[in-house]
Amino acid sequence: MSDVIETLMSAARTADLPQPAQASVRVPLAPTGAEPGRMVHLLGMLVTFKATSAETGGAFSLSELAMNRGAGMPLHRHADTESFLILEGEVEFTIGRETLRRGEGDFIPIPADAPHGFRQVGGRLSRMLSISMPGRAQEGFFLDAGEPVAYWAVPPASSCNFSRVVSAGLRHGIVMLPPV
């Protein structure tokens, strides 16, 4: 677990974020319970917001992604640093030209502007946490491209309006890329 903490700390140091002494506004993060946060369906995933950038004073956002086989995010890039922690299941990541298959407990850090994407490849539901620093672009994209839902249900992997995804991505600094 110390590798995870070290990776997060390193990413936080390299992100273009105000340092604690420079921060003009402090927003305390209130502990959350087991109740789901705001949810959207996007690209066959159920995205649940656990902590928004507004709730963390602009430092990061934290979302849970739940998906069935074949669902995921196509190759894309953005200025946020992003990391994933797989809670259950198997997910295949493409980072640059490298493809990695990862499972429960694996931590996958993605540097800012690195081309990356992922898809669920296991035989059962996959869930992972996504932390994005500072997170505003990712949140905006999820909300803009996704369909709001009021209940916890993972959509079919094929449910997608890809032109909406591409347009929302461009509005939030997320560029969809062709497969490598």
From TrEMBL:
Write down the superkingdom of origin: Bacteria
Tell me which UniProt keywords the record has, alphabetically. Isomerase
| Residue ranges occupied by any Cupin type-2 domain in the UniProt entry | 67-131
InterPro entries named in the record: Cupin_2, QDO-like, RmlC-like_jellyroll, RmlC_Cupin_sf
Isomerase: present as a keyword of the record?
yes
Task: Tell whether Nucleotide-binding is among the UniProt keywords.
Answer: no
A GO term, aspect molecular function: isomerase activity
Which Pfam family, any one of them, does this sequence belong to?
A: Cupin_2
**What name appears for this protein in its UniProt entry?**
Mannose-6-phosphate isomerase, cupin superfamily
Species whose genome carries this gene: Muricoccus roseus
